[in-house]
């Protein structure tokens, strides 16, 4: 992690030019920086005691009810594929975090533990129980490693969220994801919640790789934060072949939106600060990272250029020490501490959605995503290299 600190005082373009450890080592160093406070505190049954809850003035008491599950669920949704690996240079570190996660989840679902989390008080628990469910779908061995009684407590906690009615928007997918998790582990699941979420989102498709967030279109990153990664992962977890029609559509929609996301990343790793929840930082590229992890990128986008683009985003949003407090917890902001960027529903735990940018760490170090030579992404090729590239075009799906 020393290389991260040495680069912290440089500007973004200067930092991109500096020699450093290979990209995978750099990603792992950032993952460790982000995950360490959350996983160690939860394993010690001290997450509620140690984690600060920064939020909009006047929202502290409300967000404290939700922020801890936010941090846990969102972090595991991002690092789940990496925890699923069982080989490679990071095996010792990964095993340490895996064991911390096993122990921590035991506290998170134990009603007698200090860190027993909130699964049904208010609406927000539905969101972050769903991210936790997604993390377990992405890391099946984590669920299997839990003691039988812990698994039952986890299932009970997830069932508590069924009392929460989702909004008529991307929230339908949170209900659906929890049911998809039940299906993935052989439990009875509510097929109606899954069906409603998937079919309603099909109706909200706006064209050229983008869904509405509900009936309306929003200029924001929710197609990436939630909508498309959830649809893709739910379709992978649900065995029902009646959704093959949507799987076929997503084979065009998901790569197209990934291509758009790759083009949104500027030569210096910056991207348009558009719409809600911009404080999720690199999580704005959850979908691009997931598409790369699942090896579903468009044919004209090389994995190594996505690696370069995401690395640049991480440098802009996670490298500078101003993104963290003195104990290593994330602060509200996009590129530093910028608390006015946080909406009323944003708090410290929310910010750990940034971990979803790390999904390709679930690919082995020998995978072409990591082993191919460094490659420039589209905006660098166009703006800095002046390359003559084909024009971009819409996709019908």
Automatic annotation (TrEMBL):
Question: In the record, which residues are listed under signal peptide?
Answer: none
The DUF2264 domain sits at 23-377
Pfam family membership, one: DUF2264
User: PANTHER family attached here?
Assistant: DUF2264 DOMAIN-CONTAINING PROTEIN, LINALOOL DEHYDRATASE_ISOMERASE DOMAIN-CONTAINING PROTEIN
The name on file for this protein is: DUF2264 domain-containing protein
Which source organism does the UniProt entry give? Siphonobacter aquaeclarae
């Amino acid at each position: 992690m020393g290389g991260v600190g040495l680069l912290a005082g440089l500007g973004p373009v200067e930092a991109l030019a500096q020699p450093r450890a290979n990209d995978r080592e750099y990603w792992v160093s950032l993952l460790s920086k982000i995950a360490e406070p959350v996983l160690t505190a939860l394993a010690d049954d001290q997450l509620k005691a140690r984690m600060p809850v920064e939020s909009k003035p006047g929202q502290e008491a409300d967000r404290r009810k939700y922020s801890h599950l936010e941090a846990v669920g969102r972090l595991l949704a991002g690092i789940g594929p990496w925890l699923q690996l069982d080989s490679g240079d990071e095996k010792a570190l990964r095993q340490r975090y895996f064991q911390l996660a096993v122990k921590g989840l035991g506290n998170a679902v134990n009603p007698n533990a200090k860190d027993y989390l909130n699964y049904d008080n208010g609406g927000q628990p539905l969101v972050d129980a769903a991210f936790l469910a997604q993390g377990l779908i992405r890391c099946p061995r984590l669920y299997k490693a839990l003691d039988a009684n812990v698994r039952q407590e986890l299932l009970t906690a997830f069932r508590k969220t069924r009392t929460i009615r989702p909004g008529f928007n991307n929230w339908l997918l949170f209900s659906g994801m929890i049911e998809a998790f039940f299906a993935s582990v052989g439990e009875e699941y509510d097929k109606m919640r899954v069906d409603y979420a998937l079919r309603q989102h099909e109706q909200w498709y706006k064209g050229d790789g983008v869904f509405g967030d509900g009936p309306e279109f929003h200029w924001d990153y929710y197609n990436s934060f939630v909508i498309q990664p959830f649809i893709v992962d739910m379709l992978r977890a649900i065995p029902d072949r009646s959704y093959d029609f949507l799987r076929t559509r997503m084979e065009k929609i998901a790569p197209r939106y990934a291509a758009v996301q790759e083009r949104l990343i500027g030569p210096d790793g910056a991207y348009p600060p558009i719409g809600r929840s911009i404080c999720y930082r690199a999580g704005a590229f959850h979908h691009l990272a997931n598409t790369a992890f699942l090896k579903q990128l468009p044919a004209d986008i090389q994995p190594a250029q996505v690696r370069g683009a995401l690395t640049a985003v991480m440098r802009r949003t996670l490298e500078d020490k101003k993104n963290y407090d003195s104990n290593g917890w994330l602060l509200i902001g996009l590129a530093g501490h910028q608390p006015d960027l946080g909406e009323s529903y944003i708090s410290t735990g929310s910010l750990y959605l940034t971990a979803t940018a790390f999904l390709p760490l679930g690919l082995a170090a020998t995978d072409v995503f990591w082993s191919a030579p460094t490659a420039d992404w589209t905006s660098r090729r166009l703006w800095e290299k002046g390359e003559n590239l084909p024009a971009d075009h819409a996709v019908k799906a």
